[in-house]
From TrEMBL:
Positions in coiled-coil regions: 446-473
Annotated keywords: Coiled coil, DNA recombination, DNA-binding
PANTHER family: DNA-INVERTASE FROM LAMBDOID PROPHAGE, SERINE RECOMBINASE PINE-RELATED
Cleavable signal peptide: none
One GO molecular-function entry: DNA binding
Ranges where the Resolvase/invertase-type recombinase catalytic domain occurs: 14-188
Organism annotation: Methylobacterium aquaticum
Entry keyword annotation includes Coiled coil: yes
SUPFAM superfamilies: Resolvase-like
Protein name: Site-specific recombinases, DNA invertase Pin homologs
Domain of life of the organism encoding this protein: Bacteria
Length: 598
C-alpha cells in the first residue's frame, strides 16, 4: 500500500494438481459421486478459487495423476509420464508464466519422496516464479526473500515433507511384512481374492467355473495338436457359443490372450508369489514383479491333466525355439507339408523345401540351398508318395521300449536341467539382495541369468515332452487314430476345415516323434526318432528291417490316391531292392563333407 489504499492482487493463472495413489479413489460410486479422495481435492480447489477471484483456472495441462505413487516419485520423474513432471517441464520451457499458482491439497500430494529430494522439488518451482499453495493448511510458498513469514513457511514445509515420507515408508514396510506373513501362511489361507478367470474365491476355497474350464481344455487341446495361437483365437471368435467368448478385459480372443492363458501354470494348480520392486530406466521409475521363493503346488485346483499340459507346453516351447516355424517352404492354409520343421538336406543341413507348381506337376521336397548352387543335392523327393509311406509306417512304430538307456538318459538330463535352473535362480536372488534390482552393476549379470533361466526352462519342457511320449508307448494309439481320421475325411471329401484340423495334429505328432529327417542326394531318407531309432525311406517305400525289404505304403493309408500305378509300384520295388543291395554301407558326414563307413 504505497498510498494507503489496499490494491487488488494482480490477475494470475492457477493450475490444480490432483494425485491419487489408487485409481479406485477416483471412480464413481453407486450414486454417481466421486469418492472422498478425489472429491475432496476438487472441492478444496473450487473453494480457494471462489475466495481468490483474481485467479483463473487453466485446465489445459490436465494435471491429474491417478493411480500414481508419490512415495516412489513416479509422478515427478524427469523423463517420466507423470503430470507433475509435465508441469515442471512446462515451467522450464516458459509455457507456464511466472507468477502462476500451483494448487495442491497438501504438499504430500506433490511428493512423498525423501525430504532432500522433495524440498529441492518445491524450491525449484518457487525459484522459477511459481506460487505453490497447500489448500488444507492454507500455506503459501513463494519467492519472497524479504518476507520473514514466507521464509518461515519453508521451515514448516521441511517438517511436513519429512512426515509424509516417513508415513509412506512405514506403510510400505508394514505392507511388505503383511504379505510376507501371508506368504508364510499360504498353506492355511489364500493370499488374495484375485485368481484366474476360471476360478472364484468363495470363503477360503476356490470354486470352478465348469464352462470356462471346458474352454481352457479345448484351447490347450488345440495347442497340443499344433495349432498356432492366432488360429486358436480365430476359431474361438468364430464359434457362436457364448460360453467361448473371451472373459478377459478384451471383447475377443487374440494370440496374446491365448498365450497368456496357455502359459499360466495355475492350470496345473501352481501359484508363484511375487513382489514389486522398482528401478529407474531412461529416467523413468518402473515397477517390476519378481518371483519370491518357489512356486506353491496345489494352491489352485488343477484343471488340465499332466499329459495335456506337457504336450501343450512341449509344442509351445518348440515354437519359441524356432523348430515349429515353417522352414520347409510352402505350407498354406491346408497344411500341405507335414515335415517342414524337420526335413533337412543330409549333405548341407539346409531345410528341404516343399514345391508344388500346380495340378500338372508333382509336389516335391528339394534342398533349399541347391537352387542357388550352394549344394549338390539335386534330388527331387516326390512328396505325396513319401508322405503316404511315412504315415503308413508311423502308425506301426512302437517306441515303448526305446533305445537301451534312452529313458534313463532323458531323466538324467531333466534332473540336470532342474538343478541348473535352481542354481541360476539362487544366484540371481543373491545379486538382487546384495546390489538391488536397479543397480547398474547388477543389470548385466541379471540379464545373463534371466536368459540362461529361460534356456533351462525351455530344455525342461522339451525333455518332459519327450519323456511323456516314451511313457505313453510312443503315442501309437493316438497316431493310428489321427491317420485313420485323415483317411476317412479324405474318402468322404470332408470340408477343408476338418482336414486342416487333423493335419495340424499329425504335423505335431511328426514334430513330437522325429528328432531328424535327413534327405540324401540318392533319394534316401533317414528318420531319427526320439527313442533313438533310425528308419529309412526311398521314393514312397519304407525299409522293413525284419524282412530286409522295401515295402510300398499300404494298410492304413490304402485308398489315399497315389499317382503311381500298381505296376509302377512293383517295378519300383524291384529296382529299390537292387539299389539297396548295391548301395555301399556309407554315411555322409556333413561337417567333414565326406562319406564315412557306417
Amino acid at each position: 500500500m504505497t498510498d494507503g489504499i489496499p490494491r487488488a492482487p494482480a490477475p494470475a493463472t492457477a493450475y490444480s494438481y490432483i494425485r491419487l495413489s489408487s485409481k479406485r479413489q477416483a471412480t464413481a460410486d453407486d450414486k454417481k459421486k466421486y469418492r472422498d479422495g478425489y472429491r475432496r481435492q476438487v472441492e478444496l480447489c473450487d473453494e480457494y478459487l471462489t475466495q481468490n477471484q483474481h485467479l483463473t483456472l487453466d485446465t489445459s495441462l490436465k494435471l491429474h495423476d491417478i493411480g500414481v505413487s508419490g512415495f516412489r516419485g513416479a509422478n515427478s520423474a524427469p523423463k517420466g509420464e507423470g503430470k507433475l513432471a509435465a508441469f515442471q517441464r512446462a515451467v522450464e520451457e516458459g509455457r507456464v508464466a511466472k507468477g502462476s499458482y500451483l494448487l495442491l491439497e497438501s504438499l504430500d500430494r506433490m511428493t512423498r519422496t525423501q525430504v532432500n529430494v522433495a524440498q529441492a522439488m518445491l524450491l525449484n518451482l518457487v525459484n522459477s516464479g511459481i506460487v505453490v499453495v497447500s489448500l488444507t493448511d492454507r500455506m503459501t510458498y513463494r519467492s519472497a526473500p524479504d518476507d520473514p513469514a514466507s521464509q518461515a513457511n519453508f521451515m514448516y514445509s521441511v517438517m511436513t515433507l519429512m512426515r509424509a515420507h516417513e508415513e509412506s515408508r512405514m506403510k510400505s514396510k508394514r505392507l511388505s511384512a503383511t504379505w510376507e506373513e501371508k506368504r508364510r501362511k499360504v498353506g492355511a489361507t489364500k493370499l488374495t481374492g484375485r485368481c484366474p478367470g476360471w476360478l472364484t474365491l468363495v470363503g477360503n476355497e476356490f470354486e470352478l467355473n465348469e464352462k470356462r474350464v471346458a474352454v481352457v481344455n479345448e484351447i490347450m487341446g488345440y495347442l497340443a495338436d499344433g495349432w498356432g495361437r492366432d488360429r486358436i483365437a480365430q476359431r474361438l471368435n468364430n464359434d457362436p457359443d457364448p460360453d467361448k467368448r473371451c472373459w478377459g478385459h478384451g471383447r475377443s480372443w487374440h494370440g496374446g490372450t491365448v498365450q497368456k492363458l496357455t502359459d499360466n501354470r495355475a492350470l496345473i494348480g501352481e501359484f508363484q508369489p511375487h513382489k514389486l520392486v522398482f528401478e529407474e530406466r531412461a529416467g523413468k521409475l518402473v515397477g517390476k514383479r519378481v518371483p519370491v521363493g518357489d512356486p506353491i503346488p496345489d494352491y489352485y485346483p488343477r484343471v488340465v491333466s499332466e499329459e495335456l499340459w506337457v504336450r501343450a507346453r512341449n509344442v509351445a516351447n518348440s515354437r519359441k525355439l524356432g523348430r515349429a516355424h515353417n522352414a520347409g517352404g510352402q505350407t498354406g492354409t491346408v497344411i500341405s507339408n507335414l515335415f517342414g520343421s524337420v526335413a533337412a538336406c543330409a549333405m548341407c543341413g539346409q531345410p528341404m523345401n516343399y514345391r508344388d507348381r500346380g495340378p500338372r506337376s508333382t509336389p516335391v521336397l528339394r534342398c533349399s540351398a541347391e537352387r542357388g548352387g550352394a549344394c549338390t543335392n539335386a534330388y527331387r523327393i516326390p512328396y505325396e508318395d513319401t508322405e503316404n509311406a511315412i504315415l503308413s509306417w508311423l502308425v506301426t512304430l512302437d517306441m515303448s521300449g526305446g533305445a537301451p538307456g534312452e529313458a534313463a538318459r532323458l531323466a538324467e538330463d531333466l534332473r540336470t536341467a532342474h538343478a541348473s535352473r535352481g542354481e541360476l535362480q539362487a544366484r540371481g536372488e543373491t545379486i538382487v539382495a546384495e546390489f538391488g534390482l536397479g543397480n547398474r552393476f547388477a543389470k548385466a549379470p541379471l540379464a545373463d541369468i534371466e536368459r540362461k533361466i529361460a534356456e533351462a526352462e525351455a530344455a525342461i519342457i522339451d525333455l518332459e515332452g519327450r519323456i511323456a511320449v516314451l511313457k505313453a508307448s510312443g503315442g501309437r494309439d493316438e497316431r493310428e487314430m489321427a491317420v485313420a481320421t485323415l483317411v476317412t475325411l479324405r474318402k468322404r471329401k470332408a470340408p477343408e476345415e476338418e482336414i486342416v484340423a487333423v493335419r495340424l495334429r499329425i504335423r505335431q505328432i511328426v514334430r513330437d516323434t522325429f528328432k531328424s529327417m535327413d534327405c540324401y542326394e540318392d533319394g534316401l531318407i533317414e528318420i531319427g526318432t526320439i527313442d533313438g531309432g533310425t528308419h529309412r525311406f526311398r521314393d514312397g517305400y519304407w525299409w522293413h528291417k525284419e524282412s530286409q525289404a522295401w515295402l510300398p505304403w499300404a494298410g492304413a493309408m490304402a485308398g489315399m490316391g497315389s499317382r503311381a500305378t500298381k505296376a509302377e509300384l512293383a517295378r519300383r520295388a524291384a529296382w529299390l531292392a537292387e539299389a539297396e543291395a548295391a548301395r555301399p554301407p556309407l554315411r555322409w558326414d556333413r561337417e567333414r563333407k565326406e562319406w564315412t563307413q557306417e
